[in-house]
Write a structure and sequence with these properties.
Helices cover about 50% and strands about 15% of the residues. By secondary structure, it is of the alpha+beta class. The protein has a two-stranded antiparallel ribbon with strand order 1-2. A hairpin with a 2-residue loop joins strand 1 and strand 2. Helix 2 runs parallel beside helix 5 and helix 4 packs across helix 5. The longest helix has 19 residues.
């Protein structure tokens, strides 16, 4: 669209350009468009536009629960990847399981109503903190 760096926030672009174009095109032509914003984290990276004929029924916008979930994080593997081989060798599976369980409980208390990926991220941080305190 050749408008890079024209708007500080995506919401401004959406309001001043996309929504206005959507209204004007629908008003003056027999077509309309919908769009979907592809994000990386909270940042809008790409916009997919879908062009429809005037008589076509508008597709429903996907609900948040219908969207693809964030990837599942293997907290234990990520945690172990930060340890030296000596630390891994000295760490029993039972101790690792207890560390993970305690960290998961802390994460659940801290962010009880957040998504699974947020809880996994907090669990990983708590595991690292607990581990550091044991050293």
């Amino acid at each position: 669209m050749a408008i890079e760096d024209s708007y500080e926030y995506f919401s401004h672009l959406e309001h001043h350009v996309i929504k206005k174009a959507q209204e004007e095109i629908e008003e003056k032509t027999d077509i309309h468009f919908t769009y979907d914003v592809e994000r990386e984290g909270r940042t809008a990276k790409r916009i997919k536009f879908f062009i429809h004929q005037g008589g076509e029924e508008r597709p429903e916008k996907p609900k948040m629960e219908d969207r693809t979930e964030a990837p599942n994080i293997d907290v234990m593997d990520v945690f172990l990847s930060d340890l030296t081989q000596e630390q891994i060798d000295a760490l029993s599976q039972e101790r690792l399981d207890k560390l993970h369980e305690r960290a998961a409980q802390q994460a659940e208390q801290e962010v009880p109503n957040r998504s699974k990926s947020v809880k996994q991220s907090v669990t990983l941080q708590r595991m690292k903190t607990l581990w550091d305190n044991l050293q």
